[in-house]
């Protein structure tokens, strides 16, 4: 894609701080550095979001996650955890429309990254949960 910043990084038209590269993926530091070591992992093939992945591309990208995670853990012995985030489409906070995984090292509960899940369990009966599960299951190919 001509206007994709990640495609330009892959083509070395824009500099990056690479941490890993092979024929199919590239991992580099996110300039925002939400926490020290915040790394992006991207496929070299332009794929806009998770909905556009084929199984081969998904398997190839996600299979690299443990390698990068272990490298982060080894590089930063004070790392206490790791968030892996993948935002898809604008409403879900995707800002670069070349699919990417954020690997965000966690050091303390007070670091600069927060995720909060709201528990809405009381809003769903067991019957509703069965209906939702069935609706999704019938769409899985």
UniProtKB/TrEMBL annotation:
Domain HIT: 5-115
Entry coiled-coil feature ranges: none
CDD domains on file: HINT_subgroup
GO molecular function per UniProt: catalytic activity
Single GO BP term: nucleotide metabolic process
Top-rank taxon: Bacteria
SUPFAM superfamilies: HIT-like (SSF54197)
Motif (Histidine triad motif): 98-102
Transmembrane residue ranges: none
Active-site positions on this chain: 100
UniProt cross-references to Gene3D superfamilies, sorted A to Z: HIT-like
PANTHER family: ADENOSINE 5'-MONOPHOSPHORAMIDASE HNT1, HIT FAMILY PROTEIN 1
Protein's name according to its UniProt entry: HIT family protein
Organism (species): Vagococcus elongatus
